Amino acid sequence: MTEPTIPGVDALPTSGAHLPPGAPHPTRSTYDRELIEVKDHILRMGSLVERQIRAAIDALVTHDAEAALRVIIDDRLINDVQREATALIALTIATQAPVARDLRYLLTLDHVSYELERMGDHASSVAKQARKLAPFAPVKEYVKLPQLGEIVAEQVRGIIRALVDNDQDRAREVAKLDDNVDALYHLIFADCLDLMREDPANVDPCTRILFAAHYLERIGDRVTNIAEDIVFLASGEVEDLNP
Questions:
Q1: How many angstroms separate the CA atoms of 21 and 195, rounded?
Q2: Would you give the DSSP letter of residue 7?
Q3: 110/106 Cα distance (integer angstroms)
Q4: DSSP helix, strand, coil percent of the chain (3-state; round to 5)
Q5: Where does the pLDDT of residue 238 fall: very low under 50, low under 70, confident under 90, or very high at 90 and above?
Q6: What residue spans define the domains of the chain?
Q7: Cα separation of 224 and 115, whole Å?
Q8: What confidence score (pLDDT) does residue 99 get?
Q9: pTM metric for this prediction
Q10: C-alpha closest to that of 78 among 111, 39, 44, 105
């Protein structure tokens, strides 16, 4: 399978251009190979996070406590890839002496890996609520929680695509979806309050739903953080995409 590339990377200045006299000069091809490997780790993390979100929501809807447990356990896969990516980025910086734009790009990928790792933690937290909800009957089809999970999963997919393509317009579009996430989260919150007022038996399951909705909303916020990184890489401008 052809490795994904990010437009503009091959045109960046040669790494090591400002090494001290007498220092070994790393080749551009070595840097490019290491960069492709870093990008591969980021893409894998994004795919795992999306899968974890969908699996957690599916476990919740199907009352499958065992499936929810698998999501919790599989969070370690994202953590492992994140550690590998961070180590590779550190090694690349140390051995390739990247110049300004290359360094900025590598540090941005490191931040993206951190955001994805935290998204994985949030997906695991949704799965923990799914385990606790498994014994309960569905409460009003889980008050639109599945719809919220779908939007957030699509956000993760979209922002990774924008990163691969270095597409700041696409990143802005994905960030705008956070308005939909916030609106749906507030709707879930209001519906759950109404359900808890109507019947005290709804308090426990609705509380779990609210926790799960909060974790999904936080994933949306972290997607916006990555979108801001992409805009910065493409334009050099620091923007708040979710004022």
A1: 71
A2: T
A3: 6
A4: 80, 0, 20
A5: confident
A6: 28-235
A7: 10
A8: 86
A9: 0.86
A10: 44
